[in-house]
Amino acid sequence: MADFTALPDLAVRSLGGSVPAASDESFAERENLINPWAAEHRAATFGRKGQVYDGWETARRRPSALDLAVDDRGHDWALIRLGLPGVIRGVVVDTAWFRGNFPPYASVEACAAEGYPSVTELAARDWTEIVPRGPLRGDARHRFPVEAPRRFTHVRLNIFPDGGVARLRVHGEVIPDPRLLTGLTVDLAALENGARVTGCSNLFYSRPENILAPGLPRDQAEGWETARRRDDGNDWVVVELAAPGVPRLVEIDTTHLKFNAPGWAALSGQDARTSGEWTPVLPPTRIQPDGRHRFRLHPAPELTHVRLDIYPDGGIGRLRVWGDLTEAGERALHDRWTAFAG
Asked: Which CATH number is 178-329's, of 2.60.120.260, 3.65.10.10, 3.40.120.10, 3.30.360.10?
């Protein structure tokens, strides 16, 4: 089975995820579950609630009436709204730094909800168990493959009976709602619209998928940066567009890349349904550090993929390919949506 962690984290805050509710967060806030960075820890750092943890931690549950023979304590849970709805291929439950206070068991459920339901409305939905209740260890990353070929919008992490979890990662394939895209000019290269990276020359410093993320990068680590080349070649990345379309404008963003931006960039396109040959879309063009560059494309063919070449190496913060979906593109989005609607 392919490594599902190579797929986007559909729940991470930087892609729009949120944690609207939890049963308890006495020791550490539920929102920490979807922070994009790895969990951090400083020993002997105490606040008013005890040791400070970069994660979600609940209070200790106790058997009622001190009847130790009957365990009716229940369990804790956290509700996560996916920033990018899609098909979940795997979940990571990370108990980093929780060594004497981790939950011994956990499970994960998922549901699909249209619109913007409240927490109460979500509780009444039909939930599908995508990760059965299983054991956890302290200070460890637990990887759970998921076999549920449906589009989900929310997940619920259940821990038994209580304790702390540092991070929840929900990896999968983005399935956008075609009703929000058809008939409009859209970013054909946006991760949130279903675009994905299919290849690149180098990912020494950071992953190329970062250039498809929404918003501006907060620092140079949130883009794609390659190692320094010592030959006559150049670096490149190939992006499969969200659906077949006609690009109208390309934006190449080097925000925060002040001393390691490429000197030039070029864009070529491909229609993989036909010859598969690469056609120049934007010739090698001078770009500057720490800035956004926009180029109108005249004329542009119908494409399924684009290839961004940077010369000779360096970093890119974001790539935007604004354009129009073709009739075939709109049909492809609708068919994919229908296939996974459940």
From this structure: 2.60.120.260
